[in-house]
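Service request form, structural biology core

Requester: graduate student, group of Dr. S.
Request type: structure prediction, single chain
Budget code: on file
Notes: please return the result as structure tokens.

Sequence provided:
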Amino acid sequence: MKAGTDPRRVPEDVKLLYVDSRAGAFRDQRFTELPKLLGKGDLLVLNDAATLPASLRAGDVEVRLAGELEGGAFRAVLFGAGDWRTDTDLRPAPPRLNAGTVLRFSDALSATVESVSTVSPRLVSVRFDRAGAELWSALYRHGRPVQYAYLKEPLPLDAVQTGYAARPWASEMPSAGRPLRWPTLSRLLERGVQVATLTHAAGLSATGDEALDAALPLPERYELPAETVRAVQSATRVIAVGTTVVRALEGNARSNGGRLVAGRGETDLVIGPSTSLSVVDGILSGMHEPGSSHFSLLTAFAPGPLLEKAAAHAEAAGYLVHELGDSTLVV
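Core staff response, request fulfilled:
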């Protein structure tokens, strides 16, 4: 499948592949027709995390922030020489850094490596030389969003935000919600569909390091509001917008004996064909190729053969994949 490359593509131009697991069927829709596929009793849960300018340069080393840790340090992944125009898998490894190494991003911002992971020397924790509002101001001045090699031009920060983005927690865009704008949300509400939010710190999708990629997704923090818990409890059907929402809801339930509990938590849950879901009934997702981890997650919602047929149809019909691609609804 071809990757989507237009960060300004409007929802009216986004295709939506509707997969009905019970009927064993699928059909083409437009994304703006989503309200016709949902109705009263359905709950749509969104990840309202805003996307960070998570990529910083310190000489030949690129530092990609992979989530804030308790106590104010950040987990980060290191990349070697080159830039986003080189595919992640082809980027050279960075020089090995030890605890105590100082990374200087500018005269006004630096960070110290506090620890190096046993999984890969490219996975480190770093602590910036400032905190609070001063740190966030510096990050937004000197950082930029994580970029993708299949694009012709670099993505500006506003192109990787959903229309309902709130706190800056995500290392990469929670892209399943990218085409979900307020006109469509308003029509969903008019049809009796409930809409609720949670915040999940979407991490990095790839690192180019075999051992580290095998460990993805890394533990990611989330916050589940009490009103969202109540909305889930009263819903007939829960539809997650993106894999991060599935992981937050199902991870929370698994940590609390099968029930949702409002508050903050962390999950490293990996969802696939053998996963038994207790909270989420369907997913609105971007398009992904068979064999990818995102595609594997869809098999928790529908049989693999049906999804493979749907994927073959999508390829023949010219659907676009990845962060800026088209969408699928699996229920």
